[in-house]
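DUF4398 domain-containing protein
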Amino acid sequence: MMTRISLAAMAACALLLGACAAKPPVQTPVLVQTPPRVVVVADPQLTELLAYQSALRLMTPSELVKAQLDLAKADHAPHNTLRRAMLQAALRGPGDLARAQASLEPLATATGKDAQLLAPLAQLLGSQYAELRRQEESIDKLNTQLRDAQRRIDLLNEKLEALKNIERSLSVRPAAGAPK
């Protein structure tokens, strides 16, 4: 009988210990919001224009001039207008960014099918060229201020040297009351 009682006691103890054990914490599910998926169908014309823009960055000045001559022979289709603007901006001569930006303005508001497809790219490039123009104007302004400051420094240095020369040329006078 002892064994039955001890087995029953052990089983009761095991049940009591199991009931006293800590319950695992309940985890609340975390909802992660994923951004909506955007499916972009790349237009071959846009892909080609972006590749052309990348190629322009790697061209030497002589290659840019050759590309300009080749593009001058092309028609005035919207994608060629974009190419001309990209090439004009890559040349970076005086006024080139302004001309590139001006050539993109009609394309940004055009109504043709090809032009409407290219309008967002034209607007993006136009805003980038405008920002580049603002940066170049700021750089020119700062360079002008630097040249003016350097001229003032040079002028002040010349005056200082002249004063030093005058000081050196003066003979040393004996102090008052000193024996002659």
